[in-house]
UniProtKB/TrEMBL annotation:
Gene Ontology cellular component list: cytosol
Protein name as it appears in the record: tagatose-bisphosphate aldolase
Xref: PROSITE patterns: ALDOLASE_CLASS_II_2
Residues binding Zn(2+) 2: 104, 134
Length: 284
């Protein structure tokens, strides 16, 4: 009973000018690290998982582990559907207990995007599940979602206003220059565009692809209306680099209860840092 929608936590973040971090998780260990750290820092938090993660770990496993984590910590949080596209898949997961979704129809033309997302909103709101959707298109790669940078498109502020009014979504993912995966050079965010979107749209705004964006730029985005900051790649790198390093030092290691420890510690540092940058500590 402890998996909640993102709606109230993002609205509170919007009122109080901070952002809720959304961390992509993959297994028991990554869930433990994010939840333990967020609870210690008294930060609201969203655990995000892509379709590939639900397939890998199993929907019921993920939901059960997350419900258990929320219950033993007395800590309600959102388990979120990140970049989901398949309507019946989303419906199945909502019916299984998930209350926070992203329907990504950003690759469809504007009217089709509105049509798909509106239908999903009507279904989701019956379950009090919050809906995030994307207008414009982020470049880069997240799991099976690969968008060539030439096919990426920034969010148009006027279109965003119409999109939000017609779809009745709860939060809007904006494309302002961030990308999924690793940045080759210094990322450039279009803050003027973000300010214009904020002026036209009154729901919480979401920044995808925050791994590798310098702290000052994330903070500036938050000051201009970003209420949810998505972090995936940096966590994966910290976790796997620490694992690799540990195996180098201990080539005969064979006990996951030991070799997972440095990986968890490395990931915890990133989680702590992102919570600090988001300004969400103490906001439970
Ligand atoms: Zn994303």
């Amino acid at each position: 009973m402890y998996l909640i929608s993102s709606q109230e936590m993002l609205k509170k973040a919007q009122r109080e000018c901070y952002a809720v971090p959304a961390f992509n998780i993959h297994n028991l260990e990554t869930i433990q690290v994010v939840i333990d750290t967020a609870k210690q820092m008294q930060s609201p938090v969203i655990l995000a998982a892509t379709p590939a993660t639900y397939s890998y770990a199993g929907i019921q496993y993920l939901i059960s582990i997350c419900k258990t984590a929320a219950s033993i910590h007395h800590f309600p949080f959102a388990l979120h559907l990140d970049h989901h596209e398949n309507i019946s898949d989303i419906q199945t997961k909502i019916e299984a207990g998930i209350r926070s979704i992203m329907i990504d129809a950003s690759h469809h033309p504007f009217e089709e995007n509105i049509d798909i997302v509106s239908k999903m909103v009507a279904f989701s709101h019956k379950y009090n599940a919050s809906v995030e959707a994307e207008l414009g298109r982020l470049g880069g790669q997240e799991d099976d979602l690969i968008v060539d940078h030439k096919d990426s498109a920034f969010t148009d502020p006027d279109a965003a206003k119409e999109y939000v009014e017609r779809t009745r979504i709860d939060s809007l993912a904006v494309a302002i220059g961030s990308a999924h995966g690793l940045y080759k050079g210094e990322p450039k965010l279009d803050f003027d565009r973000l300010a214009k979107i904020r002026n036209k749209v009154d729901i919480p705004l979401v920044l995808h692809g925050a791994s590798g964006i310098p702290e000052q730029m994330v903070k500036q985005s938050i000051s201009l209306g970003i209420c949810k900051v998505n972090v995936a790649t940096e966590l994966k790198i910290a976790f796997s680099d620490a694992l690799k390093q540990d195996f180098k030092l201990h080539p005969d290691a064979n006990d996951p209860r030991h070799y997972m420890q440095p990986a968890k510690a490395a990931m915890k540092k990133i989680v702590e840092d992102k919570i600090r940058i988001c300004g969400s500590a103490g906001k439970l």
